[in-house]
Amino acid sequence: MSSELPDSRVPPEAEPASRLSRRTFIAVATATAAVGGGVVVVRNLVPGPSPLGTTPAETPPSGRVSLTVNGKRHTAEIDNRTSLLDLLREQLGLTGTKKGCDAGACGACTVLVDGRRVNACLALAVRLEGAEVTTIEGLAPGEDDDLHPLQQAFIEQDAFQCGYCTPGQIMSGVGCIREGHTGSREEIREWMSGNICRCGCYVQVVRAVEQAAGGK
Amino acid sequence: MHPFSYVKVSDIAGALAAGRRGGRYIAGGTMLVDLMRETVERPSTLVDISALPLRDVTVTARGGLRIGALVRMAEAAAHPKVRATYPVISQALELGASPQLRNMATIGGNIMQRTRCAYFRDVTAACNKRDPGSGCAALGGFNRTHAILGASDQCVATHPSDVAVAFAALEAIVRLVGPDGRRGVAFADFLLPPGSTPEREQAVRPGELITAVEIPALPRPLRSGYLKVSDRRSYEFALTSAAVALHVRGGVIREAKVAAGGVGTVPWKLPAVERRLIGERPSEALWAEAARLAAEGARPLAHNKFKIELLKRAVERQLRIVGGTA
Q1: In a domain, A1, yes or no
Q2: Do the domain assignments include residue A103?
Q3: In B, residues 305-324, which contact A (CB 8 Å cutoff)?
Q4: The domain containing residue A87 runs over which residues?
Q5: At A11, is the secondary structure helix, strand, or coil?
Q6: Which of A97, A110, A106 is nearest to B235 (CA)?
Q7: Which of A71, A194, B16, B58 is least buried, going by the fewest C-beta atoms within 10 A?
Q8: Is residue A56 part of a domain?
């Protein structure tokens, strides 16, 4: 635990110098991550082991987290900066959950954590010890070709074009139905508003959620 | 995102000890993680307070309502007591963010929110809130969404929260615990207008922790509600909003609580509107006359003059919705 007193609500005093030093730091940090990880270029990439020549002080603080994803227990060593989204996609190979804005503004990364729909991009994985996570891969009931009723409804209602937002839409729709906000199309629209669809399939998405909620 | 150490605490004493060592508290994390990714926020230690016993909504001895700091937005909005006694709070919560974000974000974190000014988020832009003394890119920039009330020559950013507007209207009290003990801060003193120190946004002392937001008891029956006007119908910050609570007895308005959002650097309490209402009988003419006082002292920027008229109309409409006409 650090003994510094950052209180980052109060930014440092010397403006031009601090801005320069921050940029320098980012450049150095990026280079380190690229050498250390050498895997995929994502901003909060999970770095691999420290490269030779770096001192322990330069190793990003990391931790271990055990959580259940789609009924299966996982234990992972992670950089503290790793989001649940990156843990799922980069370490557990569950790429069904999509990265859209990476800022909580689009809903493409929606998953269920302990039964509640959340934005996986804003959830730090290190905080999820013991959590139960459900992703699009874990939604269908069995191992065979059975689909979850909402997945089936998305097909029947033609509720996607490019499909990028679809896993998030479906996980959000499952949350919406569980929360009971499907009393009318108007209500579904409002309670599905955290999921953006650039293809503009909103009318069909609402119908799909309505269909699945009705068949419950 | 800059590297940080992480510690999870299980009780308030542990949280305060970690806070005293310079740790930054994290609850829902929806704002903090986002701003850390943008490198606007660079805490060296995160102190996870999500296990602290601050999750209850309770009725206070005096008949007010106490909402624990870690109650999630979704939980607070749906709570039967909140819905029944202060609909303005439930409505403001449900008109904010998205269902996913409301499942994560907490009441304490909500009132610790930082501005959504695009120049604040852009680390290459001048911003006195982020880098004191660097200037304000919004003053001469694209300032359509910025403040018409409470701004200074240092900062014109609005406060983004909806529920904070309801808290301001209802004159909530923020309960805090810190190294020097417990204290309560009136909501009007909790969020700070920019003045010459725009980097200071809340009256929270180093190491202090919000434990609850308390709504004082108000005379009953009390009718209340929240109106939000934004560019998108949902999942968008307010251009203007109005929180109204009225106590009408014997055909006369005995108590009026009114505040506006999206127009001020902090949630904007409207005492002139309240004074105009108290002692009067509800009528269409009264709503219009009172609402005319809503924009007193407004100073528009190059792109947001429209907010003056929008604010008056929003207040008038919400007075009509809540107060009806006798």
Answers
A1: no
A2: yes
A3: none
A4: 62-138
A5: coil
A6: A106
A7: A71
A8: no
The reply to whether A187 falls in a domain is yes
Nearest to B241 by CA among B120, B129, B145, B99: B145
Q: Name which of A1, A10, A119 is nearest B101 (Cβ-Cβ).
A: A119
CATH code of the domain containing A206? 1.10.150.120
User: Are both A96 and A128 inside the same structural domain?
Assistant: yes
d(CA B44, CA A127) in angstroms, rounded, equals 16
Are B24 and A127 inside 8 Å of each other by CB?
no
Encode chain B (326 residues) as per-residue pLDDT tens digits: 999 999 999 999 999 999 999 999 999 999 999 999 999 999 999 999 999 999 999 999 988 999 999 999 999 999 999 999 999 999 999 999 999 999 999 999 999 999 999 999 999 999 999 999 999 999 999 999 999 999 999 999 999 999 999 999 999 999 999 999 999 999 999 999 999 999 999 999 999 999 999 999 999 999 999 999 999 999 999 999 999 999 999 999 999 999 999 999 999 999 999 999 999 999 999 999 999 999 999 999 999 999 999 999 999 999 999 999 74
In this structure, the number of other CB atoms found within 10 A of the CB of residue B207 comes to 21
Query: Given this model, what pLDDT does residue A58 score?
Result: 62
Question: In angstroms, what separates the C-alpha of B301 from chain A's closest C-alpha?
Answer: 26
Q: Are B62 and B216 in contact (CB under 8 A)?
A: yes
> To the nearest whole angstrom, how far is the Cα of A17 from the nearest Cα of chain B?
11
Contact across the interface for B235 and A193, Cβ inside 8 Å: yes
> Which of A138, A160, A186 is a domain's end point?
A138
Cβ-based contacts of B130 with chain A (< 8 Å): 11
| Cross-chain residue pair B100–A11, CB shorter than 8 Å | no
- Asked if the model's pLDDT at residue A39 lies above 50, the reply is no
CA geometry: angle at A120 spanning A116 and A124, to 5°? 105
Q: Residue A145 has what pLDDT?
A: 79
Residues A92 and A24 in one domain: no
Q: Which residue among A118, A138, A158 closes a domain? A: A138
B131 touches A18 (CB < 8 A) = yes
The tokens for B119 are: 């120049």
A133 and A70 part of one domain:
yes
Residue A215 and residue A185: Cα distance in Å, rounded?
15
Domains along the sequence of chain B with CATH: 5-51 (3.30.43.10), 223-323 (3.30.390.50)
Q: Which of B:94-153 have CB within 8 Å of A?
A: 97-101, 103-104, 123, 130-134
Total domains present in chain A: 3
Structure ipTM: 0.96
